[in-house]
Amino acid sequence: MQACPIRCSTLFILVMDVLNSLAAMEAIVSESGQERQQPKSPTEVVSQVLPKSSTFLQNVGIKYANKSRIGGASALQMQQLQAQLDAEKQESAGLKDQLDTKKIQAQESEAKLAEQTV
């Protein structure tokens, strides 16, 4: 039985990739523990290490964790804050319109009082 050098080298590369990925995952877990952050879930760690081109996560039904974090805020938190900000902007715009309407009414009332006193 002859050994196939292509299969062996491919298998070796895959094993090395797995070992490198495991080392990276362990580093991420220990890093979050040292920084006294909330520990990352295994899903977050795996999705952070595996490349986005990997179909492994998709095949097992795991969505990628968002790597972009700003000041510790996750993408979901950012979306929630953005929605809250948008709602507050709309409310502010509505209040500004009401204020403008009241100012116009006050000016009209002042004009009528000025006409009556003349």
Helix and strand pattern:
HHHH
Estimate the strand proportion.
under 5%
Q: Can you tell me the overall shape?
A: rod-shaped
Tell how many strands the DSSP assignment holds: 0
SSE class = mainly alpha
Largest sheet: none
Describe the structure.
Keywords: Coiled coil, Signal. This protein is an all-alpha fold. The chain has two domains: about 1-65; about 70-118. It contains four helices and no strands. The protein has helices at about 5-35, 40-50, 55-60, 75-115. Helix 1 (about 5-35) crosses helix 2 (about 40-50). It is rod-shaped, with a radius of gyration of 30 Å. It starts with a helix and ends with a helix.
Structure in a nutshell:
Residues 78-105 form a coiled coil. This protein is mainly α.
Annotate the secondary structure layout.
Blueprint (H helix, E strand, L loop, with lengths): L4 H30 L7 H8 L6 H4 L15 H43 L1
Keywords:
single chain; 118 residues; 0% strand; signal; coiled coil
